[in-house]
């Protein structure tokens, strides 16, 4: 058996706080660039964007409300701490999406560069949140539960859901925007699938 020095250690409260703050900030920045380019994305954020584009409602409140039903699953399957951390991450990201445009604006961004940057930003955000026992709610909670229960990687679950979101997006957005958006989602999910490995990382 491993001795005390080789046992994995839990993150401290301060480490969790900075990880959740970092993840929420990077995700909000990615969403800001995403909406600047008129892209869509996957997971519950993608669903919230489609509703926002179709109705004119703000992304932040729609995203916050959509995630509410998933917290019960997070609590039942992954525990109170995970549920509370995820709620904090979603709430913080929703606030930042509203506040960031006051201090951050984008000019010309080529769609290809934007797609890869969005995938990298949100992918790194999700990795930080996952490593600190949190998520951005919704499909992320379901994906993590399936990974823990069956070994089916979280990234692949999210990719399947993304395909459904993008198929719907073709009815609401220009196909070229959807194609660039899919590139961003592909980068995001590859970041998660390759890097979020419980058999390689202990925290």
**Given the C-alpha coordinates, what overall shape results?**
globular
What is the total number of structural domains?
1
Task: Describe the main β-sheet briefly.
Answer: none
Q: Give the SSE string.
A: HHHHHHHHH
Total DSSP helices? 9
Helix fraction bin = over 70%
Average pLDDT level: 83
Residues in β-strands, percent: under 5%
Number of strands: 0
Radius of gyration of CA atoms, rounded to a whole number? 17 Å
Low-confidence stretches: none
Class inferred from helices and paired strands = mainly alpha
Pfam families: YitT_membrane
Subcellular location: Cell membrane
GO cellular component, one term: plasma membrane
Keywords: Cell membrane, Membrane, Transmembrane, Transmembrane helix
What does this structure look like?
The chain has 203 residues and is mostly helical. The protein has one domain (28-195). The protein is 72% helix and 0% strand. The protein is built from nine helices and no strands. The protein has helices spanning 13-37, 43-55, 59-67, 70-78, 80-99, 111-131, 139-150, 154-169, 175-195. The longest helix has 25 residues, at 13-37. 43% of the residues are buried.
